[in-house]
Design goal:
Number of strands: 2
Strand content: under 5%
Helix content: over 70%
Oligomer: single chain
Strand order of the largest sheet: 1-2
Order of helices and strands: HHHHHHHHEEHHHHHHHH
Distance between the termini: 47 Å
Structural class: mainly alpha
Shape: globular
Length: 375
């Protein structure tokens, strides 16, 4: 039996097949490269939404700072790409050739030591996973070991997101400041700005997303996943049963951070830059809305929620850019009040029963085979 046979029920396998067909076949055939690249950007946010389903939907831990980890993953990838674009030949007009242009503009004459490991692509891949995970471990240990949770934890993650944004902007000579790290051109000598590269990166992004979806489902159906749900519903009972609730919370927080960071790294490759505007409070709240609209209990819904909300944002902001934040706030209120389980809840409550009744009706109308008369 294939691996997914152990992970998904028959109905979930059907949904998995629909999603895979949509991402790998229908969307690439239906849209030109510009729109497909835009959809690829939307899918990078779906990584964060999947992490939030595990963290918030299953674990009951609402984090309003997932942009922290999305941004850290994106900055790690951007640092590697920027160093590759900053060869002495490409930066010969600078006062100090061989360093990123924003460092030269800020009169820095040597590459900082903590930038140098990012010359290595294997180190960069490890850093994309480890740096956000370590950061999440520090925050999680400080909070969960002291039993800080609920609204207090959500507010603290918002504060950390704001602090990190201010730090990135303030250290302009080392991080690119408010403009971020821009003008990213190649990955290991491969030009990522061409249409062919954008198409390949879309498929890499989609395959990684499907892989993360399978990983998240494996976590959900494991004993750890069942303990997460028990912690969400009756945390004291789990603690009194002898389990260390704080360690479980730290682990799922770190896992959600690592998944978000993968999305951030792919965002940098898809878009070609990374800036602090994707780290702060507003993008972090938007990421929660992606999960809420799709359904905070559904991995499939999280992906559709990220696609739908970002497509609406693009369409709406083109005509009414100043009203988008109000529309986003209204959307979040509507989700909480009208359909708290998001799109996945609507499908489960209305769409699935409709098709069940339809198929039952068709089976009743099917004529029975008439027995042949004996000769």
């Amino acid at each position: 039996m294939p691996v997914v046979g152990f992970l998904f029920s028959r109905k979930e396998w059907f949904y998995f097949a629909i999603l895979s067909t949509l991402l790998l076949l229908i969307l690439p055939l239906a849209f030109d490269i510009f729109r497909l690249n835009l959809i690829g950007k939307y899918l990078t946010y779906a990584f964060v939404a999947i992490g939030l389903v595990l963290l918030w939907g299953n674990g009951g831990i609402l984090s309003l700072g997932q942009g922290i980890f999305f941004g850290l993953g994106g900055y790690c990838m951007a640092m590697f790409l920027k160093l590759e674009a900053s060869t002495p030949e490409a930066t010969s007009i600078q006062s100090t050739p061989g360093i990123p242009d924003f460092m030269d503009w800020n009169q820095i004459t040597a590459l900082p030591s903590w930038w140098e490991p990012f010359y290595s692509f294997p180190f960069t891949i490890l850093a994309i996973i480890l740096v956000p995970s370590i950061f999440a471990f520090i925050i999680g240990t400080a909070m969960f070991k002291r039993r800080v949770g609920g609204v207090y934890f959500a507010i603290i993650t918002q504060a950390v997101a704001a602090i990190l944004t201010i730090l990135i902007i303030g250290q302009q000579g080392y991080t690119g400041g408010v403009n971020g790290i821009t003008d990213l051109r190649t990955l290991l000598g491969w030009d990522i700005r061409t249409d062919e590269a954008k198409l390949i990166l879309y498929f890499v992004n989609a395959v990684l997303l499907i892989g993360v979806l399978i990983l998240a489902q494996a976590v959900r159906i494991s004993k750890f996943g069942r303990l997460l749900i028990a912690m969400r519903d009756r945390e004291d009972r789990v603690r009194f049963s002898g389990y260390d609730v704080a360690n479980f919370k730290i682990f799922i927080f770190c896992l959600a951070a690592a998944i978000s960071a993968i999305g951030g790294a792919m965002f940098t490759l898809q878009v070609g830059f990374m800036s602090p505007s994707f780290v702060g409070i507003v993008p972090s709240i938007e990421m929660v809305i992606f999960a809420a609209v799709g359904g905070r209990l559904s991995l499939f819904g999280a992906i559709y929620g990220a696609l739908l909300v970002n497509a609406a944002k693009t369409t709406f902001s083109e005509s009414f850019p100043e009203l988008w934040l109000f529309a986003m706030g209204g959307l979040f209120i509507a989700v909480v009040m009208a359909f708290p389980y998001g799109l996945a809840g609507l499908v489960k409550e209305h769409v699935e029963p409709f098709f069940a009744r339809l198929f039952a009706s068709l089976r009743k109308r099917r004529p029975l085979a008439q027995p042949q008369a004996a000769e």
